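Bump. Still looking for SLC22A3 protein structure tokens.
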Amino acid sequence: MVHYDEILKHVGEFGTYQKRMCFFAFLPSLSVGMHMLAMAFLAATPEHRCTAPEAELLAARYNWTEAELLNMTIPWTKDDEGSWVRDSCKRYDLMTVDLNDSYGNRSGWNVTSCDAGWTYDLSQYKTSITQENDIVCSDMWLGSMAQSIYMLGVLIGSITFGDLSDRFGRKVVMFVANALLLIAGVSTTFAPNFTAFVILRFLVGLQCMGVYLVNFVLAAEIVGPSRRTMVGTLDYVFFVLGYMVMGGIAYLIRTWRHLQLAISLSGILWIPLWCVVTESPRWLLAKGRTEEAREIVEKMAKTNGTDFPRALWEKMVESKDKLEETPENDQFYSAWDLLRSPNLAKKSAIIFYNWAVINVVYYGLSLNTSALGGDDYISFFLSGLIEFPALLMSILVIEKWGRRLPHVLFMVGGGVACICTVFVPSDLFPLTMTLAMIGKFGISAGFNIIFIWTGEIYPTVISPADRHLEAPPLYRVRRAVCDWWNPVSDAAGDSGDPPPTNIGGSRGLWKSGILTVSSRQTWGGA
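Sorry for the wait, here they are.
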């Protein structure tokens, strides 16, 4: 029985045609990378202090300087490192104190909350959704909620768009999702209030998965089996490029509405790709549209400089081997079969835990680079840049030492680096940054390895590489839940602590590496 993969091996597994199609299909991932990490700047929290309405009048009356005005309105407090800093959530109630002794002991002065709003430092961020809606102090949980709801959109999009692409085709669903992402992103720019912003961001997250998930499936279905691992990594590379571009755009555009508009309009660039991206021949075959699939494969062979295998094609069509969801024994397998066998259930639990921890720490580090100290934009850019050597290293080492040992070393090493940042004094920024980047290197390499390993560790009939190479429902839900469960409180809060102080996530990173020791080793899918 001739399989479609045999056809691909004959016409070229990764020839000129596939390289061109992968490039075009992955370009929209640039927009996805920008949207996924946008909250690092859209919801940035500038330095702030309470506004005291009476302070300006009193300053004029008593001829206070700016420094004296600050001393008379904002109390001191200790941060987590024991250093004295100005309180960003409390102020003195000047209407209830004796101002005759301006430099006296203020320990007995009444302190109140910021009932008149906040004054923000606009030297770095001109506007942000956090600033516009005063999402600070007791209300900073709203920022966490906004990011959580965004990830809920990612979850739902992961579940629905894979099935939609099965029904209506990879190409159609990918471009529809891109158009809807463009509309939702631009609409977010004009959100009249915080509630509308949260709803529209939910829709953005929904469409992001429609683009990122489906374009990977489309690309993976036109390359040969030996190149699918590389294709998955290439899609991730475009995502990271978008991540880095986001930092550059945010540096140039310091207002959140204009920034959101800029990254959203990038979707317009991908609309003309409709004319050059072709449908997946594998999907067309599965739907019985044999002639359309043949035209594409013939074009593939011509572009790659090979002959179209007519005899093999006819044998494949005659045998009706069109990637049925049921194997030859007519028994139907689903993702739930991963839990029926104790051995597979154990493997699934370990893989699930690894996915969860990886996403927790990845988004914690990526979204909260501003808490590391130093320049926010440089830190964000470097956090993306470090992923390229991590991806390259992960590919090289797994070919020599398999999946398990490199994954353990990357996870444990990254976890240790993250935990060490907790003990570094705040004035040693270079050391903190170095440790954080080591942690990001480890988590990024582990991210790529676990993606490859997951597809190899399961039986073929229920592997993410099977069923048109698309992740089965449980796999998509698992990844989406892990994406949703991330340290959003660090990302949206105004804490000055480095993101790795989410020590639960960092310890989890270390533990997941240890747990992986008990998983089955694989070598190139073996």
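The CA atoms of residues 455 and 464 lie 5 Å apart.

Edit: fixed formatting.
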